[in-house]
Amino acid sequence: MDRFEYSDARLVQGEEFLMRENGVKLYDGDSKTTFEGGELVVSSTRILWGRPGDIPRGQMCICLPLFYIVLVEEEQRTFSFSSSRKFVLHLSEPRQGKPQGPVTWSQHSFIKISFKEGLHNDFLGLIQNALMTRAWERLSLTSPSSTASIQNMADRKWRSGIVGIERKIEEKHKATDESISLAFQDLSRLMNMAKDMVAISRSISTKIREKQGDITEDETVRFKSYLLSLGIDDPVTRGAFSNQTEYFQSLARQLAQMLEEPIKEVGGMMSMADVYCRVNRARGLELLSPEDLMSACRLMSTLQLGLCLRTFDSGATVLQLSNHNDSMIVENTAVALEENGSLSATELAKILGISVLLAKERLLTTEKQGRACRDESLEGIRFYSNLFLTKEE
Amino acid sequence: MRRRAGVGAIHKQKLEQEKYRDKGTEIQENQFEQMTKQMEVFRTNLEDFASKHKNEIRKNVQFRRQFQDMCASIGVDPLASGKGFWSVLGIGDFYYELSVQIVEVCIATSYKNGGLITMDELRKRLIQARGRSKQHQDISVDDLLCASKKLRIFGNGFTVLPMGKGQYLVQSVPGELNMDHTAILQAATDNEGHISCLDIQSKLGWELERAQRGLNYMLREGLAWIDTQNPKEQTFWFPSLFAACVNSQS
Fold it and tell me: Which residues form the GLUE N-terminal domain (chain A) (predicted)?
């Protein structure tokens, strides 16, 4: 019982709430104590006990750090009339310089916790899990004061030449290896340790990049990893909407927001297959079907999102910036004609850095709108500014 | 102790420095090896989790993002549904996932093949990038054809062209976005207005197939003229470049 400390009934940062139970009695060894009928909270680093109502109000309570626990077992009941269950917690020696607690000295090295009003959680499993995870180690590492002291100790221990450095590196690797294998034991554990694992995976890949330029030779894997890294946090899903229209509208908004930059980068136009791949990579596991994608993209022009869907005469569909619409294109092409005197499709393609087919299409559109005239010759078709429009006489 | 002066001391110092340097590289090599190993562990684990716990991962919003971050840094594909009984009937994510992966391979390789790839090569690359476990490897050309049907809704921008004898060619870049012809023209400009397949292959580093395709298209469109009298190989001339060439010579 002398391992208990006084504490605020508040979880510190990084500490995780695991379970809560009422009507709990504590035993010092086998003997009864005055701590009965209270509330018990188990976190990832401590067991807290408080008088009824104290813990929710954040008042003073007593707590037992989990690192004292050596073994937990359930006491076998001889008469099982009540729903009460009892657990025995074997504890290690009290640490030096520990904060004050309710009992200064005890002859027993174990305590019992009795759940008088029944037990609704898997106490044994949770504690054992917490003991395995050893969350307090990570917590003490993050708190600044203890980090400094550990660092000092480490420096002293390792400041001994190359062998020291090698040992240090070795230990670091070992620790990483261990935490990786621990994290991947099952999904719930990986979820708990996800933040650390993300950090480790990043540091591994940066190190490898530094050394050999990239994580792999395979260009597909490189591209995949690039696309995945542009993920979106909260993909719009069909399930979140009661009606179809709303779903497609929000989807269209999200897509437009996400795609505007990449489309600008590739020159204002992106084929739908390309869009489909990028969108789904960014969404990760929330796949979007081609049909839904098309429906959302069709809405973009009416919602004025800066992007719109376009189908070429050839049958290819692309998503393009809205300012690439016909009137803008005609205007720009007419200006280009004026500047250069005359242009063929190939010349325009070279000037604008677009495909020949697209350049030709643009010139023909300009012609259709009366802003260009053609000159057909052996060298192909050339386009000139329509002087009938601009010259008065 | 006072340091000894003279040639011997300098030699010794040099030797020491070299030893330190060797040790340094050794440690670095070691560390790199360790990192590579850890990455392998990470990769297998992530692949495993992606295929086993897909739905649980999907449900947890925060973790989903974290999982994706991990996949991104290690280069693992989170889409790892196996081909099940239902996928044959078109139900489930398998073919949709495959279609995303197909486009991905096409885009990733388009810088060197101009958006044209044979189905066999596509399959090889896709399997390689997908993952190491057996279910990732077990993908047939038929699966790929089936998956690419899902992309038909995007029109002619993404097409699978049958070549006969069970061979297929996948075209992922629509003509409107195809920069090949512009590149050929540029190359021809630097070559006095004419160019041949071999020239293109050596200048632009393309494959024969890609070069021929580009030239034939321009021939059809009337952008290029063909000269069959060249004893070595056919040459293509670009009338639109004649004026520019004449001007530069005069």
Answer: 1-143
Q: Does B125 touch chain A (CB under 8 A)?
A: yes
Asked if B71 has any chain A CB less than 8 Å from its own CB, the reply is yes
Residue A375 near residue A342, CB atoms below 8 Å? yes
Q: How far is CA B83 from the centre of its chain?
A: 25
| Predicted pLDDT at A252 | 92
Query: What's the CA gap between B60 and B49, in Å, rounded?
Result: 14
- Measure A46 CA to nearest chain B CA, in Å: 25
Q: What length is written for chain A?
A: 393
Q: What is the pTM of this model?
A: 0.64
pLDDT at B240 over 50: yes
**Predicted-complex ipTM score:** 0.79
The pLDDT-based confidence of A149 (bands split at 50, 70, 90) is: very low
Rounded-to-integer distance, Cα A119 and Cα B71, Å: 40
Instruction: State the burial class of residue B9 (Cβ atoms within 10 Å of its Cβ: 0-12, 13-18, 19+).
Output: exposed
Closest partner residue to B57 (CB to CB) among A197, A222, A285 is A285
Record: contact A281-B106, CB cut-off 8 A: no
Please give the Cα distance from A34 to A144 (Å, whole number): 37
Residue A284: burial class (beta carbons within 10 Å; 0-12, 13-18, 19+): buried
- Whether B55 has a pLDDT exceeding 70, the answer reads yes
- Which residues in A lie closer than 8 A to residue B193 (C-beta atoms)? none
Nearest CA-CA distance, residue A61 and chain B, Å: 33
Total Cβ atoms within 10 A of residue A323: 12
CB pair distance less than 8 Å for B223 and A380:
yes
CB A42 within 8 A of CB A54: no
Please report, for residues A107, A124, A252, the alpha-carbon distance to residue A75 in angstroms, rounded to integers and kept in the order given: 20, 11, 60
